[in-house]
Fold this sequence. Notes:
Strand 10 (about 255-265) and strand 11 (about 270-280) form a beta hairpin. This protein has about 280 residues and is of the alpha/beta class. Helix 4 packs across helix 6 and helix 6 packs parallel to helix 10. The chain contains 10 helices and 11 strands. Bound molecules: 3,4-dihydroxybenzoic acid and fe (iii) ion (FE). 3,4-dihydroxybenzoic acid (DHB) binds near residues 14 and 15.
Amino acid sequence: MAKIVGGITTSHIPSIGNAMANHLQQDDYWKPLFDGYGPVKEWLEEVKPDIAIIVYNDHGLNFFLDTVPTFAMGCAREYYNDDEGWGIPTLAPVQGDEEFSWHVVQKLIESEFDMTICQEMKVDHGFMVPMNLMWGDKETWPVKGIPLAVNTVQHPLPSALRCFKLGKALKTAIESYPEDAKVVLIGTGGLSHQLQGERAGIINPDFDIETMDKIVNDPEWLTRFSNAEIMEHAGTEGIEVIMWLVMRGALTDNVKLIHKHYHAPVSNTGAGILVLENDE
Length: 280
Ligand code: DHB
Ligand code: FE
């Protein structure tokens, strides 16, 4: 049977991709961020997941504003990366697992989450920067990757509560897969940032730090916020944090905190890292 081995959260800031491409991890600006990934990599080395479900938002590469699914799941054999305009080098395609994806999507739809099914899907920085952060820049990735895209771009967006419930349905879907597989969930994006408009540049470390604590210990806290309230605290793109709730909903009610790291600013964003394990 498939088993959920844990959950990770990470920002997917495109300039992190460029920093990795230019080997700037020890640079004064970047070191405080990259130091936070050491324990994540050690944990991944130890646990060695077979499949990573990466919960991310497409930023206009695969879906444009004319057609944006609320929730979409990759069911392809492999996923090609491309750069939608940040100048990040293109990385090698990531192998998927069609059988696993079709099982999960079938179970999600039976649970009334009407996923858009993507048999072809290009993945942008929202997916690839986390892959690169977790596993380095590989010709052959040591893990299969499954994209789960959430609309955090074109309003109306799904609510924080809906994302949390999707995570719960995802848990049931994964745990009913009959083949053995160790599955890690990666919730990407956030924390506070706003890239345009009057409040462009706002970062709210107090809200970020409280959010991280609650994601671990009381994830329902964030489900009580409306999207407008989250954006008031965390900026318009800070709404990406709702994707962390998909990951968190798929874990047990109580979790073990393995690692936590926060650094701001990174580019325009408060960058939060968590590694969580199920507490049986
Ligand atoms: C930045 C953050 C994002 O989440 C993103 O998608 C693009 C840019 C930033 O902070 O620069
Ligand atoms: Fe983003």
